[in-house]
Amino acid sequence: IKLVMAVIRPDKLAEVKRGLAEVGAPSLTVTNVSGRGSQPAKKGQWRGEEYTVDLHQKVKIECIVADIPAEDVVDAIREAAHTGEPGDGKIFVLPVEAAVQVRTGKEGMTAV
Amino acid sequence: IKLVMAVIRPDKLAEVKRGLAEVGAPSLTVTNVSGRGSQPAKKGQWRGEEYTVDLHQKVKIECIVADIPAEDVVDAIREAAHTGEPGDGKIFVLPVEAAVQVRTGKEGMTAV
Amino acid sequence: IKLVMAVIRPDKLAEVKRGLAEVGAPSLTVTNVSGRGSQPAKKGQWRGEEYTVDLHQKVKIECIVADIPAEDVVDAIREAAHTGEPGDGKIFVLPVEAAVQVRTGKEGMTAV
Ligand SMILES: Nc1ncnc2c1ncn2[C@@H]1O[C@H](COP(=O)(O)OP(=O)(O)OP(=O)(O)O)[C@@H](O)[C@H]1O
Ligand SMILES: Nc1ncnc2c1ncn2[C@@H]1O[C@H](COP(=O)(O)OP(=O)(O)OP(=O)(O)O)[C@@H](O)[C@H]1O
Ligand SMILES: Nc1ncnc2c1ncn2[C@@H]1O[C@H](COP(=O)(O)OP(=O)(O)OP(=O)(O)O)[C@@H](O)[C@H]1O
Ligand SMILES: [Mg+2]
Ligand SMILES: [Mg+2]
Ligand SMILES: [Mg+2]
After folding, report:
1. ipTM attached to this prediction
2. What CATH number is associated with residue C23?
3. Subunits that touch chain A (at least 3 Cβ pairs < 8 angstroms)?
4. Contacts 24+ apart (CB under 8 A), B50-54
5. pLDDT, tens only, A51-106
């Protein structure tokens, strides 16, 4: 069992959800986050004052997968989230040791 | 050290907090999230227009535990979060390699 | 590759971001969360009614690091987030098995 965690552009969420459903991994958890990658902070102006935007609004999605290979899920997210411009995001894979479905009490891969 | 991560119904949070305290694991971090499991999207009507609710409001809780077995924490959450209806949520366990308490600088199991 | 996850005081975020940039790990993802550690719930009064504040506003930061040792990142966060008062927060390190940068398709340590 793996946790595929991705931080993507908010306006790519619908496309990513579609890509995940198509690859057979429709379940996901979505969190509004902000963040920065390696790009330098962006400077803006507001009423004549200069300010720095250093945290950008992003969406974090978490998909726990068992029967679908994590690589397929990563590929589906990468394709759906891609624009080619800086800020497209990152995808990480973490190990998961156990899973339980609350309604049924099912455990392990069948719980995911 | 383990991270027990659960996505539950928002209106079960109080009961889950009580269950965790009773099992000796009161510490937790709570995040407002939305998500979907394996159930099909729900259709609704608004001013004559049909729309699809495909992300449901949920609460994510994260409990890092060291001295209490992760299984006991999982069981406490499962019992407190259970209604028997679809949408009750999922619980996952991830490995944690290190922990530090910021105030004291304590490390490892005593930091959790 | 490691995930350094920290839950800190919201008013320490700017200092922590500075500390991370200084240690060469500027990338991070920030989430508004609430939580409780081991301290007892705080009692308050509102219009004559007593109530209990048992979840405190915190900020969760997640830094995935590859070329910088996780320990250095942990130390940078610990120093920047420290006040010495209860509630300063916790830092955890989790293993990460894979990373992909969406824009370039880069994988592994160079993707972080
Ligand atoms: N190493 C990291 N740790 C934690 N979060 C990260 C990391 N790298 C990126 N993120 C998250 O992903 C978001 C998008 O990152 P971004 O796509 O800008 O990465 P990048 O490395 O700067 O790539 P690009 O050059 O394409 O912009 C960030 O705002 C942040 O929330
Ligand atoms: N595999 C998963 N990956 C990430 N998040 C998940 C996963 N499964 C469930 N979730 C999260 O848990 C929430 C509740 O899931 P839910 O209880 O509906 O799961 P389910 O498998 O559909 O079970 P049920 O048949 O009892 O509804 C979802 O809204 C989502 O946020
Ligand atoms: N074991 C844990 N699991 C999950 N989240 C935790 C855990 N411990 C602390 N946290 C998160 O960190 C926040 C701050 O914790 P806090 O600093 O109060 O920890 P503490 O152990 O009580 O230390 P102190 O005695 O210095 O207050 C909590 O509100 C919670 O969000
Ligand atoms: Mg960038
Ligand atoms: Mg469901
Ligand atoms: Mg405390």
Report:
1. 0.95
2. 3.30.70.120
3. B, C
4. B54/A17
5. 666 899 999 999 999 999 999 999 999 999 999 999 999 999 999 999 999 999 99
